[in-house]
Amino acid sequence: MAEREPQSALEAASPWPVERLSPYLIWSVWVAWVPLFLPIIIEMLLSHPKTIDAVISVAGVICFFGIYLWASLRDAWYLASTPPMASLVEARLPRAWLVLGVLSLLSIPLVLLNGGNNWFNLFYYISGYSGGRLPVRQTVLAVGGLELLATLLGLLAHNPLSVLGMTLLFIAIIGALISAVGHFVRTSQRLRSARVEIARLAATAERLRIARDLHDLLGHSLSLIALKSELAGRLLDQAPERAAREIRDIEQVARFTLQEVREAVSAYRRPALLDELQAARELLEVAGVRYRLEGEGALEAVKVPALEVACSWIVREGVTNVIRHSRARECCIRFRRGERMLWITISNDGCVPPARGGGLAGNGLRGLAERVLELGGQFEAGPVADSFRLEVALPLTGRRSEPTEVSVSEHGGLEAGRRRVERPGDVTGGQSDDTSPAG
Considering only the top CATH level, what class is 273-433? Predict the structure, then answer.
């Protein structure tokens, strides 16, 4: 097996894994043609040639394909790696031309010894190797040189013009085909390297943004705290009352800074709705629960950060409730959009065991209901027939519009206070109703 080529500088420096094409998949483009030459060898042996001619032909074919397979495998490993620097590419091209020269020299006596005809197929392998290994311009030169060599050998072997014409045509077609495949592989490698570089730059930009935010948040406040602490220390003996005022100011500045840091950190940790939906799918599949998502078109309405955060927490808590407290076989997450409200329904066909006190309102659902009502939404959770349903309505603006309250329903669930809200009939529109979203 050929040794693996060293990593490029970009791949070695990147902390992200680089997706690779299989080198054996690339190698198969060259190897797939090899068995097609076996009938030619068998036909030569069945024609009872001279012993010396047969030995030379078989030995020459073994050397030809040995070099061909070895060189193509090494180049397959090379092409499967990320694109190296241009200087390294240029440095490896003479090696490819050397392989092409050796293969061409081996093919000349084999073609002349066996009278040409099917033995011109050796040029097909040389053309395919040049198309996959060389740049386009150099491939054109290599294929042109092969066609000139094949023409000279065909004339020396007195082959019919029809055979010679088919040979030249297939040399050009195979070279162009393999060149297109090689171009596709190199383009794919550039795209993978670009993704790695984009990810690295995005992480660097995010670190710089966090550093700037923390500097803006803490730089002024900490400097103020240091100055006031130094001033309070000097005034402690001379003016205790003023020193006490400075200390109270320090306390207020510290509390205000702490609040700003908490808000900034919560913004960094803000969940993404699509990520939560993907995580929900994975968790439910691991738990053996069939996952179904409906109303994906309504997700386009989730544009306000506060609304996305609330929806993410609803999906997370609702799915966690299904996994921990039910014996469900199927869980459905449905989004519906009205004119002013977004509805989220999480239902499952499992039975939820009663909580302490005979109710179903756990701390997770109560905390979720508080988040919803802070945004002026509506919340209801409880068993319906032989299933459990969590249904939430949130304003599309992500802001409170009317105060609501949470209550425990008669069937043990949580529900919001009655108020006039819109009741969507489908994903794109809805109508108003005076009842809560419970059905």
Answer: alpha beta
